[in-house]
Specification:
mainly beta, 696 residues, six-stranded antiparallel beta barrel, six-stranded antiparallel barrel, disordered N terminus, 54 strands
């Protein structure tokens, strides 16, 4: 047998024994053969002594030998870990710890628990939350309790107009109509991420509707602005700036707007108009009269000079009429236009102005009215007669004041002072007369019948001034049969209002009619007026008459009234006009040219189709200078007229105004222009004047 091969099993056995005894350089649990130290015997080598406590590392535990120099262990084994205990819980953004213990040796180990991650969050609008409403002046705000989301992150809501840039988001909730984008946001927490929700909300304009049977007091127009009180009943908020105007097609009292019959036209204005929409459903409006109530005290005074002769009480803005508007309670039943005292029930009163009526509750109350005589008197002659043995009687109307027996008055036609010797009405003598006296007859002293014409005035000295020219604003009527009116038109003017009674009815009339001529028309550069146009007319009367600013005049043409005017400017001619027909101020020339008879050289003549009593006529002629050495060199001219038709008032130089005195009734032919002033003594057709040389 090979010795080497026989040793191998033996060595293996020895090594196995050593391992089991723990001795030696090995790390087993068995004792190993230890070589005794010098001087000792094998019986002195100690045996292994193992600790009762466990030794451990990360993976194993064991009992260690306590003998110095021994590295032998016993009961070595891998740790047996328990389920572990969380000693530091994991949190959001922070790791935790879990501690495990060996159930054998008690060794512990710590493992990291990963930090918790924030969860995704979402915001939801609760189902019962509305996102549209009608304008109510309140903010359309959304609050935390109207949303659902996770966690307790800080919550906010912002608003912007829909379609606007995101930079325009604000925290203030909208209040006015429109569509808005709402952004609800919740900030991130440890547990939840941030989240937001956008949605639209709408504020609708507030629908307003008018009340049924709305009564609108008449204002004279087609547009009616609804009052604040009415707007409030319609649903408008008090401080909002909204103007609602109804537009009618007819401005008359009784006109209506009715949804069921026609389209209602409404205009909405104001800075807050976009907050409302008009809904005319079940809407109706009617124009009605303004109701005016008389004051508690019905004792009134009115001056006779008031233009409204039927007026009893004038309402003011304090009574409910528009500022500056003249509205009267009038009596057309009892004659109250003359000075005096009157008593009558309110039921006799009416309001003539459109859009007003008296309160029916006043009907049975009694009015006491005193008309105070505050006017300077004047009378207008209507008819002139002579009573044998007594004198001249002028049947008159008295537009103003009171004329008494014995008064001294000025005659407008001649300027003479006349005395009222007596006053009669019918066949009864009375002491005084006023506008309430029906055509009194004034017995006059100091004037002849021929000097008084219809339309002449008798007035207190110094109270009237006579004129022959005035200016007035005039509108040519559209339905008077005249299409145009031009300068140079001959007209008649009616003057002096008076009260006329016919069959128990009273009306205002013009007491005098004067012939006149429109000498100029001012109408934006035109010297004419077309029907419906308004311009200034300059009127020249044939006779001097008393005129005053503010006086009304009725214009008649071809026996038709074509309109009325109000005098606004008066002109006094210079003395030259009275003498020879040429005003040096306005340059109006009233002269009539005398033309030479071609069949009878040296004779100049003129004719008037109709000469009227007391009218002045001015005939102008230039007398030629006879040729030197001719048979007519020393000739003079004689002016002739019918003495029974005209009175000769003088001859004047047309250029200088100097009086021209004839020599033995002859006028020198020296090339000068002479004006002959005549006054008609009676009405004459085809009146004729001439001047001829004395050549025989």
């Amino acid at each position: 047998m090979n010795l080497k091969n026989r040793r191998a099993p033996f060595l293996a056995l020895v090594l196995a024994t050593l391992a089991l005894t723990g001795c030696g350089g090995g790390g087993g649990d068995k004792p190993s053969s230890t070589k005794p130290e010098p001087g000792t015997s094998s019986s002195d080598v100690p045996t292994h002594q193992f600790e009762k406590a466990w030794s451990a590392d990360e993976n194993y535990h064991w009992h260690a030998c306590t003998i110095a120099g021994h590295s032998d262990t016993k009961d070595k084994a891998a740790h047996t870990w328990d389920a572990g205990v969380v000693t530091t819980p994991a949190d959001y953004g922070k790791d935790g710890e879990k501690t495990f213990s060996c159930t054998v040796c008690g060794k512990t180990k710590v493992e990291k628990l990963p930090a918790l991650q924030a969860q995704t969050n979402s915001i939801y609008l609760n189902k019962d939350v509305v996102t549209t409403k009608e304008y109510d002046r309140q903010a359309f705000a959304f609050t935390r309790d109207q949303f659902t989301f996770e966690g307790d992150g800080a919550f906010s809501v912002e608003y912007k107009t829909k379609g606007a840039e995101d930079a325009t988001y604000i925290e203030e909730a909208p209040t006015v109509p429109g569509t808005y984008t709402v952004k609800a946001s919740v900030e991130a927490t440890k547990a939840y991420l941030a989240a937001s929700l956008t949605f639209d909300c709408t504020i609708r304009p507030k629908s307003i509707s008018g009340p049924i049977n709305l009564k609108l007091p008449y204002n004279g127009g087609l547009e009616y602005e609804l009052s604040d009180a009415t707007l409030k009943t319609m649903g408008l908020f008090e401080d909002d700036d909204v103007l609602v105007t109804l537009l009618f097609e007819d401005k008359a009292v009784g006109s209506t707007l009715d949804l069921w019959e026609e389209e209602i036209t409404v205009r909405l204005e104001g800075k807050d108009v976009g907050k409302y929409s008009f809904n005319p459903s079940s809407f109706a409006a009617e124009i009605v009269n303004n109701i005016l109530r008389l004051p508690k005290n019905l004792n009134f005074k009115r001056n006779a000079s008031v233009e409204n002769w039927d007026g009893v009480y004038r309402f003011t803005s304090a009574d409910g009429v528009s500022e500056g508007q003249e509205v009267w309670a009038n009596n057309h039943v009892t004659n109250v236009y003359a000075p005096g005292k009157y008593s009558f029930p309110v039921s006799e009163l009416t309001i003539d102005e459109t859009g007003y009526e008296l309160d029916p509750q006043d009907a049975t109350r009694i009015v006491n009215l005193e008309v105070v005589d505050d006017e300077k008197p004047y009378a207008v002659a209507q008819e002139i007669i002579t009573i044998s043995g007594r004198g001249v009687v002028a049947l008159c109307t008295i537009p103003a004041g009171t004329i008494h027996k014995g008064d001294t008055l000025i005659h407008s036609g001649t300027g003479k002072a006349v005395t009222v010797k007596a006053i009669e009405m019918g066949r009864t003598q009375i002491d005084s007369a006023n506008r309430g006296t029906k055509q009194p007859g004034l017995l006059l002293e100091g004037i002849t019948k021929a000097e008084v014409l219809r339309g002449d005035l008798f007035y207190e000295d110094g109270t009237k001034t006579t004129y022959q020219r005035f200016e007035a604003e005039f509108t040519l009527g559209t339905d008077v049969g005249v299409n145009a009116l031009g300068s140079g038109t001959f007209i008649e003017i009616g003057l002096y209002d008076y009260r006329e009674e016919k069959d128990g009815a009273f009306s205002t009339s013009k007491a005098a009619s004067y012939k006149a001529k429109i000498v100029d028309i001012k109408n934006e550069g035109n010297s004419f007026l077309l029907k419906g146009q308004t311009g200034t007319i300059v009127v020249e009367t044939d006779l001097k008459t008393a005129l005053w600013n503010g006086m009304s005049a009725r214009i008649r043409y071809s026996n038709k009234t074509i309109g009325e005017c109000t005098i606004n400017k008066l002109h006094s001619h210079t003395e030259s006009f009275a003498n020879y027909g040429l005003c040096q101020s306005c340059h109006y020339d009233k002269t009539i040219s005398m033309e030479e008879d071609q069949s009878n050289p040296g004779t100049f003549e003129a004719s008037i189709a109709y000469a009227e009593t007391r009218y002045d006529y001015y005939f102008v002629v230039t007398l030629p200078i006879p040729e030197a050495g001719s048979a007519h060199e020393n000739e003079d001219y004689m002016f002739s007229f019918v003495a029974s038709e005209f009175a000769f008032l003088g001859a004047y130089n047309h250029e200088t105004g100097a009086v021209v005195t004839p020599s033995a009734d002859y006028y020198k032919g020296d090339g000068s222009t002479i004006v002959f002033h005549l006054r008609a003594l009676k009405n004459t057709s085809n009146a004729y004047v001439s001047i001829t040389d004395n050549f025989a």
